[in-house]
Amino acid sequence: MKPVFELEGLRVSLRQRHKKTELVRGVSLAVEPGECLGILGESGSGKSMSIKASMGLLDKGFCVSGSARFEGQELLGRSPEELRRLRGKKVGIVLQNPMTCFDPLYRVGYQIAETFAAHNDWNAGEIRRRSLKMLEKMCIRSPEETLEKYPHQLSGGMLQRIMIGIAVSMTPKLLIADEPTTAIDAITQFEILNEFLRVKKEHQMAMIFISHDLNAISRVADRIVVLNQGQVADQGDFYHILHHASDPYTRLLVEKRAAVMERYQGILEEKEASYA
Ligand SMILES: Nc1ncnc2c1ncn2[C@@H]1O[C@H](COP(=O)(O)OP(=O)(O)OP(=O)(O)O)[C@@H](O)[C@H]1O
């Protein structure tokens, strides 16, 4: 099957005065149609940088080389306008902090409508109908009222759900979620992950799910690529990562997860004992 998206030997460096820092050092990966690829790695491992570099989201100071292809077409070297059109329509992107994606000065409904209008030729009535339908689908109560609200009047979880809803409404070929559950509490995190699972099942779209959290990734990803210091350290399905990964860095992530689970189990047992 032809990949929807692939990176081949992607390199990103930053030149500051006379110093050149390599941030991404030859990353190769591919996402098949209908597949969810998890990119796992600790803060600073190059997860966001790899995606931003391929989608034209980096400033001029960065130097990008190698290859990034979407549906077989090279992305590196394309004009900012071409890449802007690609993002939003064919590639949906959901970022870590939904607050930064909404303008605090405008009502949520206006901002949804603006995005819909920028990528489609829907008239005002169609935009309103689709906005309400999207909010209902994302399980937002009182959709009509929500459209009238300003971002600060909604919770982080609600805004994140709306961001996913906007991205999915464009029926992109690829949905990229960069740490979409990091800035929200555990219960909302659980709901947002369910949302991704539902979208994946319903739309059969290719997805990239970026996270430093092996638990979160294991719920949605079919395959996981582990990044460490700008390089691919390991890859395989969750079972492989959990039981057969040989890379020391990957093992460290797995052990950390086991330690967290053990601690969680201990707290639960303590609580049960105190109730008894
Ligand atoms: N704007 C920037 N200017 C200079 N260096 C940067 C910039 N953004 C990221 N970096 C550096 O690039 C490297 C990779 O960062 P990247 O954002 O891809 O990490 P990440 O794995 O996505 O982690 P996080 O989730 O914390 O963002 C890190 O060393 C980081 O310090």
From TrEMBL:
Gene3D superfamilies: P-loop containing nucleotide triphosphate hydrolases. It holds the Pfam family ABC_tran. Residues 5-254 form the ABC transporter domain. It comes from the Bacteria. Keywords: ATP-binding, Cell membrane, Membrane, Nucleotide-binding, Transport. Belongs to the ABC transporter superfamily. This is ABC transporter domain-containing protein. It comes from Enterocloster alcoholdehydrogenati. The lineage of its organism: Bacteria, Bacillati, Bacillota, Clostridia, Lachnospirales.
